[in-house]
Amino acid sequence: MRTALITIVRGRHEHLRRQLRWVSRLAPQPEFHVVVSMGDPKISGLVAENGNGRGVVVAMEPTEELHLAAARNTGVAKAAELGADAVVLLDVDCLPDRDLIGDYARALTETGTRTAVISGRVKYLPEGMTEADYTASGVAELGRDHSARRIPPGDSLEPADPRMLWSLNIASTVESWNRIGGFDEAYVGYGGEDTDFGQRLAAAGGTMWWSGRACAYHQYHPTVTPPVQHAASIARNANIFREKWGFDPMEGWLKDMLDTGHLTHEAGHWRAADQSR
Question: What b/e string do you get for 129-146 counting C-beta neighbours within 10 Å, with b at 16 or more?
Answer without folding.
Answer: eeeeebeeeebeebbeee
